[in-house]
User: What shape does this take?
Amino acid sequence: EPEVTQTPSHQVTQMGQEVILRCVPISNHLYFYWYRQILGQKVEFLVSFYNNEISEKSEIFDDQFSVERPDGSNFTLKIRSTKLEDSAMYFCASRFGAEGEKLFFGSGTQLSVL
Amino acid sequence: SQQGEEDPQALSIQEGENATMNCSYKTSINNLQWYRQNSGRGLVHLILIRSNEREKHSGRLRVTLDTSKKSSSLLITASRAADTASYFCATDGGIQGAQKLVFGQGTRLTINP
Assistant: This one.
């Protein structure tokens, strides 16, 4: 079965540094998402992306966050100036259609901000 | 918030027993989905039930949906040690063209051999 791949699997950074989390969604998918999960707790929606623009974002997704699809395959999440509370597992997900279809998740990037 | 709430937060049973997890949500929905997460891994889709459906089966999984009570249940029959994982329900908020899924807190299921 096709997979969503995320790199790196672990990222350690200093507070205030910029990080870029990378994702390669499934090739024919059209809708892309970032979620995060703190310490195995609830999975929180960050942002959805369709047709090369953000379609929805949560309150968590403030000006420090941005997403980009620089080419036909990669989908990135950038955090400009990381805070301690950004430490979490970040999941990329994709799906072909918007409604009534399942999300395919990557294995996640564990971000630790020191 | 449309967020689903799973109940119980944690469930520990013996192998071979049935496991039932519940989900309540607040808004209308087009569909409700259940996902599984093994420790430290991404979520994997298990089953989807549409708002006009009341029950759905897939292998050892049985999902029910009661839209009048805004609740769903996931039953895993004849549990196995490999079913140990966290289980999440996810809803779409009932908006046409809605793109995001909102996940609940999850139920941590432990199957004891």
About this structure: The mean pLDDT of chain A is 93. The longest strand of chain A covers residues 43-50.
